[in-house]
Amino acid sequence: MSKPAVLAVALMLVAVTARAQISTTATPVYHGKLRIIRPAVGRLDKATGLGTLSVRGWRLKLKEGSNGIFPGEEPVVVALGEESFRLDAGALTSSRNGKVFRYRAPPDAAPRAFRSFRIARRPGGAYLVSFTLIGVDMSILVLQNPAPCQPLAHIVGDDDGFTGANLMTRPAFSLHVVVPHRCRSPWPWLQP
């Protein structure tokens, strides 16, 4: 084989292996953005301080230079303040065209878990993310409304999207929880 042909084959192999790599951990390397499109809603149990939170159609934009996400093969984590909710790699099922990935919890799911999760690839490379969390610690809302701004991250493999979440009840000190807009919160999980 001639030298130019060997060089061409070697360059093709490097390009293929560098293009897409599946991450087995949910440790962010590429920090994208998570944009609140419509308010998240939920419900608070004042007796326990636990509640549900439903996000519908928030926009995840990956960082330029990311190697992409593989929701069907990588772990998924949603972190809110000090709490995190995790789906292991392989928990999501793919649509036929491979652009939508879903999870629905079984009826006997843990009291603190994902009830549902959906991520859909949109034209232009962004993703729409929807999920419902159950057993979220919202006890601060019993005493303080709105709660201080909390970091909220959506992590798929080594990619994340981040925003600040302003949890509050509407009307004040009721059972109805809302995240109406983003707030400014530093990304606490970044390594200096």
Give your account of this protein's structure.
The chain is mainly beta and 192 residues long. It has one domain (22-183). Helix content is 11%, strand content 43%. The protein has two helices and 14 strands, in the order H-E-E-E-E-E-E-E-E-E-H-E-E-E-E-E. It has helices at residues 3-19, 140-143; strands at residues 30-35, 40-45, 50-61, 76-80, 83-87, 93-94, 100-104, 113-121, 127-137, 150-156, 159-165, 168-169, 176-179, 182-183. Strands 1, 2, 3, 4, 5, 6, 7, 8, 9, 10, 11, 12, 13 and 14 form a 14-stranded mixed sheet that branches. A hairpin with an 8-residue loop joins strand 7 and strand 8. The radius of gyration is 19 Å and the shape is globular. Mean pLDDT is 85; it is low at 1-20.
Describe this protein with a few key phrases.
11% helix, 192 residues, mainly beta, disordered N terminus, single chain, globular, 14 strands
Compact overview of the structure:
It contains two helices and 14 strands; from the N terminus they run H-E-E-E-E-E-E-E-E-E-H-E-E-E-E-E. The protein has helices spanning 3-19, 140-143, and strands spanning 30-35, 40-45, 50-61, 76-80, 83-87, 93-94, 100-104, 113-121, 127-137, 150-156, 159-165, 168-169, 176-179, 182-183.
What's the layout of helices and strands?
Layout: H1 3-19, E1 30-35, E2 40-45, E3 50-61, E4 76-80, E5 83-87, E6 93-94, E7 100-104, E8 113-121, E9 127-137, H2 140-143, E10 150-156, E11 159-165, E12 168-169, E13 176-179, E14 182-183
Parallel strand pairs: 1-11
Antiparallel strand pairs: 1-3, 2-3, 2-13, 3-9, 4-5, 4-10, 6-7, 7-8, 8-9, 10-11, 11-14, 12-13
